[in-house]
UniProtKB/TrEMBL annotation:
Domain spans labelled Glycosyltransferase family 28 N-terminal: 3-91
Residue ranges of every copy of the Erythromycin biosynthesis protein CIII-like C-terminal domain listed in the record: 293-412
Entry keywords, A to Z: Transferase
Transferase as UniProt keyword: yes
Xref: Gene3D superfamilies: Glycogen Phosphorylase B
UniProt-listed PANTHER family: STEROL 3-BETA-GLUCOSYLTRANSFERASE, STEROL 3-BETA-GLUCOSYLTRANSFERASE UGT80A2
GO molecular function ontology, one term from the record: transferase activity
Keyword flag Transferase: yes
Name this protein carries in UniProt: Glycosyl transferase
């Protein structure tokens, strides 16, 4: 079967699909991954066919972060500005999804960000499709909307807020969806109406996160399943850079600090905070540059570029991260304590889940990050054994899950 996976967003929104794609290929399928052009190398390393999408993930991330206050004390971006940037990203994405699918596929797999436009493309092509989501966005009484941090408003309030959240998403897609349907020769249909149709048909969605963090909500409809993480592809012969390996061997396990796609333009400020906190807490550190461009020089700290979290995290004392879905899961999988520093979008939700497990400290909101607060969190995460014990327990439970295998199984069961 020819399978096309479509994913858009930051690295954490794309990288897990390389691992899923490789597992599908190993099961005998022809697999292509459509993603923003900046991830062509990432996809090529996995050996999958790459199809480019035009949307710029850095612009999307910058738009999302505009909703929150900068560490350095700037004013928050307005909601209207955030909506404009999200709408521009969506408008750019639609034609790219259509072009990627037109190159041929027997089955379309949509991420959370590509599904609202992908549904129209699947309809036009008459191709079966499934959701392969990294976030639980379907309304439930068990927690509030993920993009709102998951704060509970009670069962009725949670469901109502979840429905409102989806209406906002549909409204953002209205113009892009109308243009896409016209381009594809489809009759007009409101974005919200298409979503209702998908729900009524029990359109299948497989969620790639662990039940350790989010058990399947009991009030979800049939067709919505939580199967466990699918992890970014890491070649069997991949090794850490020699300089990093030497640093890890030269002393006690360091703390990892990285903010992924967050913090663009704040590298100098974040680097100063990180180094000062490490020295206050008297621990060594590895700083990952990320989109912020973290850097440091010293015997007790090393700055690195992109390295596989699966190889690095198990050799650290703790992980300071922005609580993106992928990084949060990778730290938990490694069995090491986390210090979540959530910025925006779904990050406060995952940060809260980690803390509720006892596998990480109380989240330090990005806008409140200081060297003093980070140093105190580091002392707790590294010095108090219960954090590592809870993280190790979560890792043992996650080990029993194989999200990619479940996706392969469900595809072969449901798609002729």
């Amino acid at each position: 079967m020819k399978i096309l996976i479509l994913a858009a967003g930051s690295r954490g929104d794309v990288a897990p699909y390389t691992g899923l794609g490789v597992r599908l290929r190993d099961a005998g399928h022809e697999v292509a991954l459509a993603a923003p052009a900046s991830f062509s190398g990432l996809v090529a390393e996995s050996g999958l066919e790459f199809r480019g999408l035009p949307a710029d993930p850095r612009a999307q991330a910058a738009g999302a972060q505009a909703a929150g206050t900068r560490v350095s004390g700037g004013s928050p971006g307005g909601t209207a500005d955030l909506m404009r940037k999200a709408s521009a990203f969506i408008q750019e994405l639609g034609p790219g999804i259509a072009d990627a699918a037109a190159a041929g596929a027997d089955l379309l797999l949509f991420s959370t960000t590509t599904a609202p436009l992908g549904w129209h493309v699947a309809e036009a092509l008459g191709a079966p499709s499934m959701g392969v989501y990294l976030q639980p966005v379907t309304p439930t009484g068990e927690f509030g909307p993920v993009m709102g941090g998951g704060r509970s408003l009670g069962r009725w309030g949670n469901r109502a807020a979840g429905r409102i959240s989806l209406r906002v998403v549909d409204r953002l897609h209205t113009t892009a969806a109308a243009g896409l349907r016209a381009r594809l020769g489809l009759p007009p249909a409101a974005a919200r109406a298409v979503r209702r149709r998908q729900e009524a048909s029990n359109w299948p969605v497989l969620h790639g996160f662990s039940t350790v963090l989010v058990p399947r909500p009991r009030d979800w409809r049939d067709g919505l399943d939580v199967v466990g993480n699918w992890w970014p592809h890491c070649p069997a012969d991949r090794r850490l850079p020699a300089e990093l390996d030497d640093f890890l061997r030269s002393g006690p396990p360091p703390v990892f600090i990285g903010f992924g796609s967050m913090g663009a333009g704040e590298g100098e400020r974040l680097s100063e905070i990180a180094v000062e906190a490490l020295r206050k807490a008297k621990v060594r550190g590895v700083l990952q540059a990320g989109w912020a461009g973290l850097s440091a020089v010293g015997d007790d700290v090393l700055a690195v570029g992109d390295v596989p979290h699966a190889l690095l995290f198990p050799r650290t004392a703790a992980v300071v991260h922005h609580a993106g879905a992928g990084t949060a899961a990778a730290a938990l999988r490694a069995g090491v304590p986390a210090i979540p520093v959530p910025v925006t979008a779904d990050q406060p939700f995952w940060a809260g889940r980690i803390a509720s497990l006892g596998a990480g400290t109380t989240p330090v909101p990005y806008k409140e990050l200081t060297a003093g607060r980070l140093a105190e969190a580091l002392r707790l995460a590294v010095g108090e054994p219960q954090y590592r014990e809870r993280a190790a327990e979560a890792a043992r439970r996650m080990e029993a899950e194989d999200g990619a295998a479940r996706v392969v199984e469900e595809i072969e069961k449901k798609v002729p």
